[in-house]
Amino acid sequence: MAITRQVITTLDGNGLSVLTPDVIAFKYYDESIVSGSLLTVETNEFCVLKSRGAVLAVYETGQYPIQTPDKPILGSVVQGFFGGASPWVYEPIYVSRSKLLAKTEGIATSREMAELVYQVDFYIHVDSKEDALALVTHMPFSGRTIPVKELIQYAGPVVEQSVNQILQVTPLEQVNEHIHEITELVKEHLSSFLKIYGIHLNDLKVLIHPKDERMRQIISLKALGLSPLDAVRMYAALKMAEKGLVSAPNMAIGQAFHIGGNIQSTFPVGDIIDPPA
Q1: Domains and CATH numbers, the chain
Q2: pTM, to two decimals
Q3: I need a labelling partner for 203 at 20 to 30 A (CA). Which of 3, 133, 227, 234 fits?
């Protein structure tokens, strides 16, 4: 992205922002930024201005001239201490104030140690200048941006612990009955954790299903009112029907399948040699 010394902005030449829906914060580093440059903050942004590690100010929407904190150092003093370069290196950090979607998933276990897959979708946003400052203070940059997926690396263990706290004492068949309780617990723990980083948690949705697809389908059939044995039979019958086996209906009702539709009687070997009168 081409940057001028006069105007600092997150928009490129086409008017597109670097703060995409998967980016929470963007670090704008350019040694050519000098006092008097204009700092532009869009409506969906906050900007934290730092200089040599210290926070100078936090800005909301608008355009602001950057002012050198102290009187400029001129002449031989600059040459002697800074090699002729300006001692002020400005670092604007833009923080998105848009509502962003985050997702995390993992494996949990039921009371019977059956493996379950959980998926948690939630929305986050930074609400105020104080929140933006908290984010910049506590969330480290591993590059020029803080992507949403990097936040998930911090929040993932909190979600996993919250989900397992209930699932590990819940029978597999009763997991869906406790989905509201699990959702509320995840929301409570995740909200408290994100607050440290100045991030607010909005809507949250939890989905849980068996890791094994066969187990999921059998449980679904049992939910229709079938007994465990009938559910297994129906599952086997459906798989047989997919293969085109004509004996699938017999499996579904638990009856033997006879070729030609006739039941063949069986006799002991001795009766065949000397059949009864």
Answers
A1: 7-96 (no CATH), 100-127+138-211 (3.30.479.30), 215-256 (no CATH)
A2: 0.73
A3: 133
